[in-house]
Amino acid sequence: AAEKVHTGSGKGQFVGDVEIGTTQSGSTYQLVDPDRANQKTYDLNQGTSGTGTLFTDDNDVWGNGQPSDRQTAGVDVAYGAAATWDYFKDSYGRNGIRNDGVAAYSRAHYGNNYVNAFWQDSCFCMTYGDGSGNTHPLTALDVAAHEMSHGVTAATAGLVYSGESGGLNEATSDIFAAAVEFHEDLPADPGDYFVGEKIDINGDGTPLRYMDKPSKDGASKDNWSSTLGGIDVHYSSGPANHFFYLLSEGSGPKTVNGVDYDSPTYDGQPVTGIGIENAAAIWYRALTTYMTSTTNYAGARTATLSAAADLFGAYSPTYLAVADAWAGINVGN
Ligand code: ASN
Ligand code: ZN
């Protein structure tokens, strides 16, 4: 019998009440999204290999917002995958992570007390742990968008995951994580320039990373220096995240979606923001057109200037804002 297309209603822990794409198969429904190339969501059921089983449900009402309900994580990650698919499609006409119309799949409930999430090119899939006590899952929207964006980077510039290119790879995932979050702007998770603010990975309510002033995490760098290539890629991403914040919102104090930021510049000169959609479009064009596997910070500057020239005109106000934002993190000034 032909499978029927349905839209299930879900309640995630982080996304709140949402619609998710589901497919009826016989007398049950599956977390298979017919609007997005049958993008699938699996329950690993604490295993660490294979796909486990597809999430299924008998009445197409999924999760209850609590981590104790296994479907709740499925709702969050299925929504995250859908939102990320939509972001790249709506913004850039990108048809899936590899732009080939093929959907990646998601795996929730990986292992026990696993405090991470990750993307793998080998399976073309992303995987999510349940976090500390199996009750703090790493399934928020920005985490999903971050992981899937690793797939986009791998399929495009291919930035090597070490040294300065590794920092740019990580920053690319944080940049599109923020862009996806603003694009959705869910009541339960409005757009912000933090990474992982919902998952409470530190146990004290603080986010994993701060794009306006990355050093607030105690380890990330705010500005480029010659030591950058020798540190963990999740910290050498800091200056590029800071560049992206400055380009989007500008320097100095600013309130966005009710959140107060105050972003400094390395050179003390002001930067005028161009808005997150323009900043992300410049980064996307730079990533997909000009960056290569070995692009470093200086190369990222020239890549974004070329992208800005293409999209907005050489020496346009937007192009000049890109140059100012790089100067604001000690690149090219
Ligand atoms: N969650 C981490 C990340 O996406 C996994 C890793 O270290 N690659 O960056
Ligand atoms: Zn990452």
In short:
It contains 8 helices and 15 strands. With 333 residues, the protein is of the alpha+beta class.
Task: Explain how this protein is built.
The protein has 333 residues and is an alpha+beta fold. It has helices spanning 70-92, 141-155, 163-184, 233-236, 238-249, 276-290, 297-312, 317-327; strands spanning 4-11, 17-25, 28-30, 32-33, 39-43, 53-54, 56-57, 61-62, 105-110, 117-120, 125-129, 194-195, 209-210, 252-256, 259-263. It has 2 domains: 4-155, Elastase, domain 1 (Roll), CATH 3.10.170; 163-327, Orthogonal Bundle (Neutral Protease, domain 2), CATH 1.10.390. Strands 4, 5, 6, 9, 10 and 11 form a 6-stranded mixed beta sheet that branches. Strands 7-3-2-1-8 form a 5-stranded mixed beta sheet. Strand 1 (4-11) and strand 2 (17-25) form a beta hairpin. The model has no long low-confidence stretch (mean pLDDT 97). It binds asparagine and zinc ion. Asparagine binds at residues 116-118, 146-147, 150, 170. Belongs to the peptidase M4 family.
Q: How many strand units? A: 15
- Helical residue percent band: 25-40%
**CATH class group of the largest domain:** Mainly Alpha
Largest sheet: 6 strands, mixed
Distance from N terminus to C terminus (CA atoms, Å) equals: 65 Å
Q: For the CA atoms, what is the radius of gyration?
A: 20 Å
**SSE string, helices as H and strands as E:** EEEEEEEEHEEEHHEEHHEEHHH
List all distinct small molecules, including ions and cofactors, that are bound in this structure. Answer: asparagine, zinc ion
Structural class, by secondary structure, is alpha+beta
The low-pLDDT segments are none
Any idea of the CATH topology of the largest domain? Neutral Protease, domain 2
Using the 3D structure, state the CATH architecture of the largest domain.
Orthogonal Bundle
Task: Using the alpha-carbon principal axes, give the shape.
Answer: globular
